[in-house]
């Protein structure tokens, strides 16, 4: 019996397709400057305050240095002058699936979007490169006053609600990539749920990158008014190109008194994508913001969903799964900022490192001295598949005073060669045995996903593990 853990390579062929025949009516060209900003603002016919917002953000982007304290070598390879920042066929977002352009329709049909909408979703938005091509929500939700549109429609049709919160939770000065998004943002979702309305089925957006050397910069803003509830899910894919692709989103969540927002991400980027995302929510009194995050693929992911616990008895939670394969670095984590008494935060992070893949957890928990009755729980578990796999954990927990409590737990384990051998003796292939071990490791978090997503997630891991043992 071999005592070495078998080598694993990840097959990401499921999303590796694109259409060369797509013709773009609007193309901002290559490179980033004031002309790029003006081109996007002109195409979108934006009000003056948005144009000024973009230009100030561009200045902030130039002013801020590239993050240098981690992932430095990877980030230095990004050439902002060789990226295309806006591509659109010029079509308006349609609410009829039949009116979606053919090649885009084929893309989303291959990825199963229509079936998911019919089966279990309350609404769907599908974005292709820079703009949404399809957006639809069940009629009964519209009658209740629920808004589910893109930022363009949010700006034009609901300016009072949109402007009140837009860019307030994540200012352009937050970090270099938040500034970049603020300068060139296009697409994304704007959701408003009125007081007391509970959206029982999830709303979903799907983001697809089709073009090479392209940057996708969607912007999402979700506002749950007092006592309301909503679950939002996003899925992301891109085909594999020889050149780098950039995905830099900004997500802002506002949960007002007693409201609940659950934000679920399942990304499956190809390994040429730089996935540099800023996500943050604010929870008012007795409100809850919950992030459930699954990161598979990408060359580098830097993503740390956060919650500012602003009101008394507010709750924040981040549950994350990251899988890093050869040439991939999943640098993920969470931020919990306690700003009121009796606030509670929970962080559970699980990572799998395959081959020479690297996973990193970075967490920030801050509880000031003047607060009382606050609680935090942080758990970080890592699974190493091969001897060259790497994992790092950097928790930064600051607790001042003696009226609150925190606890932190971390573990690192390796797949047992004996366990794999045992399962092989009972008829499983090496890949099937490995996927069973991995799914067992993340099973308690997978249960938190809606049933359709948890089944898909397990199936994706099985497909990637099966037959990929080298």
Mean pLDDT: 85
Gyration radius (Cα, Å) is 22 Å
Q: Level of helix content?
A: 10-25%
Tell me the number of structural domains: 1
Quantity of strands, as a count: 24
Low-confidence stretches: 1-19, 466-470
- Report the end-to-end length measured between terminal Cα atoms: 17 Å
Q: How many helices does DSSP assign?
A: 12
User: What's the story with the biggest beta sheet?
Assistant: 12 strands, mixed
> Approximately what portion of the residues adopt beta-strand conformation?
35-45%
- Give me the secondary-structure category: alpha/beta
Principal-axis shape: globular
Task: Walk me through the structure.
With 470 residues, the chain is of the alpha/beta class. The chain has one domain. The protein is built from twelve helices and 24 strands. Strands 5, 6, 8, 9, 11, 12, 14, 16, 17, 19, 21 and 23 form a twelve-stranded mixed beta sheet that branches. Helix 1 (34-44) packs antiparallel against helix 2 (48-63), helix 7 (151-157) packs across helix 8 (159-165) and helix 10 packs across helix 11. The two termini are 17 Å apart. Mean pLDDT is 85; it is low at 1-19 and 466-470.
């Amino acid at each position: 019996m071999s005592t070495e853990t078998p080598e694993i390579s990840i097959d990401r062929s499921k999303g590796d397709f694109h259409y060369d025949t797509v013709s773009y009516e609007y193309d901002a060209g290559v490179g980033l400057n004031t002309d790029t900003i003006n081109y996007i603002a002109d195409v979108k016919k934006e009000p003056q305050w948005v144009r000024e917002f973009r230009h100030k953000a561009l200045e902030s982007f130039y002013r801020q240095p590239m993050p240098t304290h981690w992932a430095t070598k990877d980030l230095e390879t990004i050439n902002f002058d060789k990226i295309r920042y806006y591509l659109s066929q010029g079509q308006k977002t349609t609410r009829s699936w039949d009116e979606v352009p053919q090649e885009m329709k084929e893309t989303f049909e291959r990825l199963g979007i229509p079936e998911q909408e019919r089966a279990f979703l309350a609404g769907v938005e599908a974005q292709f490169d820079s703009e949404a091509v399809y957006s639809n929500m069940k009629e009964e939700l519209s009658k209740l006053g629920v808004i589910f549109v893109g930022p363009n429609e949010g700006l034009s049709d609901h300016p009072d609600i949109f402007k009140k919160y837009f860019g307030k939770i994540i200012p352009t000065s937050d970090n270099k990539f938040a500034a970049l998004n603020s300068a060139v943002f296009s697409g994304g979702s704007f959701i408003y749920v009125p007081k007391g309305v509970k959206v029982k089925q999830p709303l979903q957006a799907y983001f697809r990158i089709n073009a090479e050397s392209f940057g996708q910069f969607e912007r999402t803003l979700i506002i749950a008014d007092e006592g309301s509830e909503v679950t939002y899910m996003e899925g992301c894919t891109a085909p594999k190109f020889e050149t780098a692709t950039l995905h830099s989103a900004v997500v802002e969540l506002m949960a007002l008194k007693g409201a609940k927002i659950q934000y679920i991400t399942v990304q499956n980027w190809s390994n040429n994508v730089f996935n540099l995302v800023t996500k943050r929510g604010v929870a008012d009194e007795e409100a809850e913001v919950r992030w459930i995050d699954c990161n598979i693929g990408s060359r580098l992911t830097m993503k740390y969903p956060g919650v500012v616990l602003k009101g008394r008895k507010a709750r924040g939670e981040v549950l994350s799964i990251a899988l890093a394969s050869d040439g991939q670095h999943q640098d993920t984590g969470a931020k919990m900022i306690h700003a009121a008494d009796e606030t509670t935060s929970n962080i559970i992070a699980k990572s799998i490192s395959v081959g020479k893949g690297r996973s990193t957890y970075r967490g920030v928990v801050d509880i000031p001295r003047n607060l009382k009755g606050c609680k935090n729980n942080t758990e970080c578990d890592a699974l190493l598949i091969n001897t060259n796999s790497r994992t790092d954990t950097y928790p930064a927990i600051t607790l001042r005073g003696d009226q609150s409590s925190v606890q932190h737990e971390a573990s690192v384990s390796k797949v047992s060669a004996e366990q794999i051998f045992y399962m092989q003796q009972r008829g499983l292939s090496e890949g099937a045995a490995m996927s069973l071990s991995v799914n067992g490791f993340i099973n308690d978090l997978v249960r938190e996903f809606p049933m359709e997503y948890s089944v898909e997630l397990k199936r994706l891991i099985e497909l990637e593990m099966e037959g990929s043992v080298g």
